[in-house]
């Protein structure tokens, strides 16, 4: 019996590799003869760089960078030989011709500028910076990366990526020409001019499944601002300043303001927009890229049972990305699927077995703290 273990992270509780390892340990105890294929998933957020780097036998590079509220933090990015990346993923990357020994850098914004790096009371998009992400991009370029793949999930920021651009050759000035650094949203009313241009950088590809434009009711601030600490009373002010700075950046880089309306421009507080306008970065479908990179179709076809899971599995999951997409594809191949999640708000169907790992009535902080034990107990019950 061959089992594919393809967990995503349980947000604020378990990484995807940890969830896969817990389930695998339980299965080895219950079914020692079964063959296990561990395939942690990544959606562009926490774990993106490590999972893709290890899957392609690359190297993780550690750097100290500026964290989302200015304090130093330890972050990492991967360097992967281009010829280790599956052909389907290379096609999606759509890179210019590169030498045989070329390496691709894999950066996750969450590592340097992530919301999870901040306590709840420190989350404030007016003061959250993507400087560290810009520093990782620059470090990867300095190491000779032929291209950069950036995952932008889990960000703490809503700054259009301007603080990252300040690390990549751009400067921001008030009406008297005085530099403003870093160009945090709190300082935007003082910014009257943008100068400079991007340092020599390799092509940048942004893995992104978000479809939000930069502004408006589906824009970055409206949809994601509240979880990053934006007060409802501040939304209109941030929206107006975002529009002004976006137009200023487009004018400086001679880009069309239509970039504001591109599907995905609002990803990660607008860093997708900023990098497209300033560096020519391009957006890629994140889950499709990860699926190709991890060779999921082949691994699904070889499995007899598929086990997946995440923090929350609801009615929309089977129409979405990550574990829901894995489950839907496995069901289409008539593979039995078991889903383990902290919260299950979806109905089962033939071939699909849903397991809520959290005991009813458990307060959220306790559920997050005890998720490893709860996942282990739930898997053991399912295979007893």
Automatic annotation (TrEMBL):
Highest taxon in the source lineage: Bacteria
Keywords per UniProt: Kinase, Transferase
InterPro entries given in the database record: Glyc_kinase_flavodox-like_fold, Glycerate_kinase, Glycerate_kinase_RE-like, Glycerate_kinase_sf
Chain ranges passing through the membrane: none
Gene Ontology MF term list: glycerate kinase activity
GO biological process: organic acid phosphorylation
Pfam family for this entry, one: Gly_kinase
Family affiliation: Belongs to the glycerate kinase type-1 family.
Annotated NCBIfam families: glycerate kinase
Family matches, as PANTHER family: GLYCERATE KINASE
Name of the protein in its database record: Glycerate kinase
Protein's organism: Horticoccus luteus
